[in-house]
Amino acid sequence: MDYPHIARQTSRVLSSYLTYQAVRVVVAQLSQTDPPLAIWLNGFSVTGKIQDGERYLEELLRERQELALRVMTVREHLAENILDVLPEMVQAEIHQANTQQRKHHLERLTQVAPSELASWPELES
Amino acid sequence: MDYPHIARQTSRVLSSYLTYQAVRVVVAQLSQTDPPLAIWLNGFSVTGKIQDGERYLEELLRERQELALRVMTVREHLAENILDVLPEMVQAEIHQANTQQRKHHLERLTQVAPSELASWPELES
């Protein structure tokens, strides 16, 4: 498995996702202080272009630079404050999800055909 | 900012993304050892349902349990091997992207109207 390559791709996806979360934070803040601007930013952000965080910011910088700068500041804050807890959270989540999937699958199998279980040694571990 | 809530959402997105990457790893492995099965898994996985990793695995467990178990094992390996490097990578990536965005925006501004810069003190820092 090409771990470095997968890590780089995952890092890029995560950066874009934090940009999306930063936009949501800014929209929520604006809805308290400047509702029309919140509506504008929301409209600007729902067109699918936010999938590519950098391109989105580039366009936002052209349209409303103060909002783009604010989103950039917020995503940097988010990165500083939530990234450190993520490895443990995700590892626990995947471990728990795998256990649940195996358990539910075992339950479905035992409901349908108990004899099939004998051919599935992975479940015993 | 509700950091714990954003961290939980990000963790869920990351788990799903690692499931997607695990599927890609298994497809690549199968294309060497069992091409028809690789094609089957690819077809099963491109229909958009992989967006929700757990639901996808639930269906795959019903259709081809050995493949689902393999994807689950691979995503656990991925989590163990790439998550620890992610916080630093993503933080560096966002910091670098922010610097680039500010730089390019400054370049665009100076090309268009140098006088506008005076009203943008954020760029000086």
UniProtKB/TrEMBL annotation, chains A, B:
<dbReference type="GO" id="GO:0015979">
    <property type="term" value="P:photosynthesis"/>
</dbReference>
<dbReference type="GO" id="GO:0015977">
    <property type="term" value="P:carbon fixation"/>
</dbReference>
<keyword id="KW-0175">Coiled coil</keyword>
<dbReference type="GO" id="GO:0044183">
    <property type="term" value="F:protein folding chaperone"/>
</dbReference>
<keyword id="KW-1283">Bacterial microcompartment</keyword>
<comment type="subunit">
    <text>Homodimer. Interacts with the exposed C-terminal peptide of RbcL via its central cleft, contacts a second RbcL monomer via its peripheral polar surface.</text>
</comment>
<keyword id="KW-0143">Chaperone</keyword>
<dbReference type="GO" id="GO:0005737">
    <property type="term" value="C:cytoplasm"/>
</dbReference>
<keyword id="KW-0120">Carbon dioxide fixation</keyword>
<dbReference type="GO" id="GO:0031470">
    <property type="term" value="C:carboxysome"/>
</dbReference>
<comment type="similarity">
    <text>Belongs to the RbcX family.</text>
</comment>
<dbReference type="Pfam" id="PF02341">
    <property type="entry name" value="RbcX"/>
</dbReference>
<dbReference type="GO" id="GO:0110102">
    <property type="term" value="P:ribulose bisphosphate carboxylase complex assembly"/>
</dbReference>
<keyword id="KW-1282">Carboxysome</keyword>
<keyword id="KW-0602">Photosynthesis</keyword>
<dbReference type="InterPro" id="IPR003435">
    <property type="entry name" value="Chaperonin_RcbX"/>
</dbReference>
<protein>
    <recommendedName>
        <fullName>RuBisCO chaperone RbcX</fullName>
    </recommendedName>
</protein>
<feature type="coiled-coil region">
    <location>
        <begin position="50"/>
        <end position="77"/>
    </location>
</feature>
<keyword id="KW-0963">Cytoplasm</keyword>
<dbReference type="InterPro" id="IPR038052">
    <property type="entry name" value="Chaperonin_RbcX_sf"/>
</dbReference>
<comment type="function">
    <text>An RbcL-specific chaperone. The central cleft of the RbcX homodimer (RbcX2) binds the C-terminus of an RbcL monomer, stabilizing the C-terminus and probably preventing its reassociation with chaperonin GroEL-ES. At the same time the peripheral region of RbcX2 binds a second RbcL monomer, bridging the RbcL homodimers in the correct orientation. The RbcX2(2)-bound RbcL dimers then assemble into the RbcL8 core (RbcL8-(RbcX2)8). RbcS binding triggers the release of RbcX2.</text>
</comment>
<dbReference type="InterPro" id="IPR046381">
    <property type="entry name" value="RbcX"/>
</dbReference>
